[in-house]
Amino acid sequence: MEDQHIGNVTCPKCDHKQPMNIPSNSCQTFYKCNNCQEIIKAEKTCCVFCDYGDRKCPVAHGGTK
Ligand SMILES: [Zn+2]
Ligand SMILES: [Zn+2]
Questions:
Q1: Ligand 1 mean position to 3 CA, how many Å?
Q2: pLDDT tens-digit profile of 8-27?
Q3: What's the alpha-carbon Rg for the chain, to the nearest Å?
Q4: Separation CA 61–CA 9 (nearest Å)
């Protein structure tokens, strides 16, 4: 299913939820919020999905599966 690679990332500045594609073999370390136009960077973890998303990236799950 296509939506297995979509994660909702919540902007820490304005609380806007934004669906984004989760890359399967790399980490997305920043994104731009569509609402407040801020560039949000992951600081605590490997990527914005692990930091702010409702779904962890495949890389954090150990690579396979
Ligand atoms: Zn925002
Ligand atoms: Zn991650």
A1: 22
A2: 999 999 999 999 999 888 88
A3: 11
A4: 17
* DSSP assignments along 16-35, one per residue: -EEEEEPPSSS---EEE-TT
Q: Are 27 and 59 in contact (CB under 8 A)?
A: yes
The letter for the amino acid at 39 is I
Q: Which ligand is nearest to the CA of 22?
A: 2
State the average pLDDT for the chain.
88
What's 47's DSSP letter? Answer: S
Query: Is residue 8 within 8 Å of residue 48, measured between CB atoms?
Result: no
Residues with CB under 5 A from ligand 2 (ion): 46-47, 50, 57, 60
- Model pTM score: 0.83
CA of 30 to the centre of ligand 1 (A): 12
